[in-house]
Design a protein that fits this description.
Layout: H1 3-36, H2 42-70, H3 82-106, H4 112-128, H5 135-168, H6 173-197, H7 210-234, H8 247-268, H9 271-290, H10 303-347, H11 358-375, H12 377-386, H13 392-411, H14 418-433, H15 440-472
């Protein structure tokens, strides 16, 4: 076997291994909220991910792949020795895969985007010097990493706060849900369709303008919203009379609303006032525990059970949005370096950007789904259960905020962190319920793993690069 064929097989294996680890870690982030809220079983989540991840990878994935190929280091720095560039990209894939493998085993939702960018940056800076790094693009990517959790958190916070005020704090939550749900479905389907039509079918040479994409998306959203209206109107599992439901749930809502106001006073006060408010808050919390808390009511039915039943279907819609968005953005982490290596092996020169063939996108999508199916449960448990308690309504808000953020970044060619977006969304929902709803220890562990990802992957990439160089170049 000649050296070119050997490098091709090694790169494909490393790319698939990388994609497998993305599935085990990042797709678990994307589907963790749905599984954690029990809106989807793991098998159903894998099935949805299999379809939507492929769609996102094939239709939208190539845009971001170009950023991984040429946006982190300047390939022309290695024009004199293409083999160094090939070994460096191969080493970056292997190093990233190893770190993600360890993180997934520990149940830590680290950022695969951080990992691959850190790995490529590490070998590029050491081998090509600091001038090899595209610092302007790195600043742009770094800003997107900060904005992604903030933006997704804000969207999720506002959406869940809206649902709290209009549904869960309403005197008749079921009637409020009947009014609002068709609009939520309309907005979800319109956004999802727009993300596909607006420059989302570029690999099929079907690029549409924004107005053209909106022209196709609005009817889809309207039809979906109208169908939802008819189904809810005719449904029998959503009672109209609040009196028929468990009265303790209504008391729980009032107490929860009172606690929200007391928490705001507690945070803004000092001294004796803060101590007294804290005492009152504890007493109210004890009283709330003596009645059937609406969000955790078990055994006896409440109007919120019927509301959450509807949000199960809405969360499935949002899960589709997140899966498509994830496939669009994060498949680039696995196939970007692979496409760059294959291009150099074929042309013997280093181009600014390599074309991404369809079969390579399919390979990446296959690896992602395989990783989720075989090992994704570890990170799903962290995202779905250990940050804050999730219900279908909360999971819908978290997934929709993250999916919308990821899709916007994908359209701009920014390889943002899906992990940051999802965790930011879950935090946004948690903050809407109060700081006590968050597991601060889990958050600390997640943030520490985020901080460690870039330097660890950079160091691993450098080590693997020199090992491969010693084995291949003699």
């Amino acid at each position: 076997m000649d050296i070119v064929a050997l490098l091709q097989y090694l790169t494909l294996a490393a790319g698939f291994y990388m994609a497998w680890n993305i599935g085990a870690n990042d797709v678990a982030n994307a589907m963790g909220t749905s599984v954690g809220s029990r809106a989807l079983t793991l098998k159903k989540a894998v099935f949805i991910a299999a379809i939507l991840e492929f769609a996102g990878s094939v239709f939208v994935g190539a845009t971001v792949s170009e950023t991984i190929q040429k946006g982190i280091i300047n390939p022309q720095v290695f024009a004199g020795d293409p083999m160094i560039f090939i070994i460096g990209m191969l080493g970056a894939l292997i190093a990233t895969g190893l770190w993600l493998h360890l993180a997934s085993y520990l149940g830590l939702p680290v950022s695969t985007t951080h990992a691959i960018v850190g790995a490529v940056l590490g070998f590029g800076a050491v081998v090509g010097g600091m001038e090899a790094v595209m610092w302007s693009e790195m600043v742009r990517i770094g800003i997107s990493w900060i904005l992604s959790p903030v933006l997704s958190g804000v969207i999720s916070y506002l959406l869940f706060s809206f649902l709290q005020n209009k549904i869960f704090f309403a005197l008749n939550p079921v009637a409020a849900t009947k009014k609002i749900a068709p609009f939520l479905v309309f907005f979800s389907f319109t956004t999802f369709s727009l993300s596909i039509f607006f420059h989302g079918l570029q690999n099929l040479d079907l690029n549409l303008s924004f107005s053209g994409a909106l022209f196709l998306s609005l009817p889809i959203g309207l039809i979906a919203g109208f169908i939802t209206y008819l189904l809810i109107r005719r449904s029998t599992f959503l009672p109209y009379n609040l009196e028929q439901a468990y009265a303790g749930a209504h008391h729980g809502v009032s107490l929860e609303k009172a606690m929200k106001h007391l928490q705001r006073v507690q945070l803004s006060s000092e001294g004796d006032t803060q101590v007294k408010v804290s005492r009152i808050l504890n007493e109210v919390e004890e009283i709330k525990g003596s009645v059937k808390e609406p969000f955790e009511a078990q055994g006896r039915k409440s109007p919120f059970e019927n509301v959450e039943k509807l949000f199960v279907y809405l969360q499935i819609i949002s899960a589709c949005l997140v899966a498509f968005a994830h496939g669009a953005n994060d498949v680039a982490n696995a196939i970007g370096p692979v496409a760059a290596v294959f291009s150099v092996l074929k042309t013997k020169t280093i181009a600014g950007a390599a074309s991404v063939p369809l079969w390579l996108l399919i390979l990446g999508g296959t690896g992602i789904v395989a990783g989720l199916a075989s090992w994704g449960w570890r990170v799903i448990e962290t995202i779905g259960k250990k940050i804050t308690e999730l219900t279908p309504s909360r999971g819908f808000c978290a997934e929709f905020g993250a999916g919308l953020t990821i899709l916007l970044a994908s359209k701009m060619g920014l390889p943002i962190s899906t992990t940051h977006a999802l965790v930011g969304s879950v935090l946004g929902v948690g903050f809407a319920r109060g700081i006590r709803a968050l597991n601060l220890k889990t958050l600390k562990d997640i943030i520490l793993s985020w901080i460690a990802t870039i330097p660890i992957c950079a160091i691993l990439s450098i080590l693997v690069f020199f090992v491969l160089k010693a084995l291949i170049i003699k």
